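Histidinol-phosphate aminotransferase: structure, please.
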Amino acid sequence: MSIENLARANVRELTPYQSARRLGGNGDVWLNANEYPIAPEFQLTAQTFNRYPECQPALVIERYADYAGVNKDQVLVSRGADEGIELLIRAFCEPGKDAILFCPPTYGMYAVSAETFGVERRTVAARQDWQLDLPAIADSLDNVKLIYVCSPNNPTGNLIDPDDLRTLLEMAKGKAIVAIDEAYIEFCPQASCAGWLKDYPHLAILRTLSKAFALAGLRCGFTLANEELITLLLKVIAPYPLSTPVADIAAQALSTEGIRTMRQRVTEISANRSWLQRELENCACVEQVFTSDSNYLLARFTASSNVFKTLWDQGIILRDQNKQPGLSGCLRITIGTRDECRRVVYALSALPGATETRQEPM
Ligand code: PMP
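Here you go.
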């Protein structure tokens, strides 16, 4: 008998998250995982590797609370925001009974995490402008315990209207947790909902050091919520979610100096994004570039598989979003260094547009 038959049915059927690293590629310009393009330098200061680490390292919690403008008891630190996504499901959703709800096109891990736990995934497609379809959400809330909203949304790059988020929070009151995924919020800090925690006991906000803090390899993320909700998550988290080196480096990244450096990165990446947006709009093979408040741009191409493959062959690795609902012909491009942006534009400018393709001899 195959060992596979012993696995839970939902695990047998599960398609794991197709992370950029799993998809592979042989590039030298990596623009498929929304990472920062240059490695920051850190020295380890903690050497007590014979001891278990703190479950919630005090200095990291204190500094993140200061940075986010919340109280220390409103912060949970975990192995990336991905673990935060999972902890919410584990704490709030009964397998086979409760559902999570999200609005595609959006980040893929909400679905994968729910599937892993045997929790129903209910979807309400975003409107054409990628805002929330609130009436359709209101009609779909039976048994929903957890609603994920990503703002700025990955992969579309748009912010969700704050009035709509308020309406959603009112709608979900007493029924479901609303998790606002702010993984990219450093690129538009004025849009954060962290100041709303005092109004909503059922609000959770997901954050990460993987993007503007340039530490995707560290695996460190945060959940912000009121103490009652954080206490529930602490019941289901692993005893030692962060290793000693992770806590050490996270604390350094959250020092005054670390935060200043992060803000410089945001300025640089935002300038590169504006530059790339203008250049893309002049490329014949680009149909549309969508406005973004994050460290990536989504664009629709006249022949996206050809564009993807041509750049791939030149070592420029983008993220294909073709299969996501409403995103046919779309590729997502992480904003890299100015040089990397130039490489993208150079490669794209050699590709024909729709009319030129049609003019090919029969
Ligand atoms: N949320 C969104 C919207 C993301 O794009 C990502 C990173 N791909 C995450 C959460 C997960 O971040 P982390 O690296 O902290 O697990």
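Notes: Residues 281 and 289 are 7 Å apart (CA to CA).
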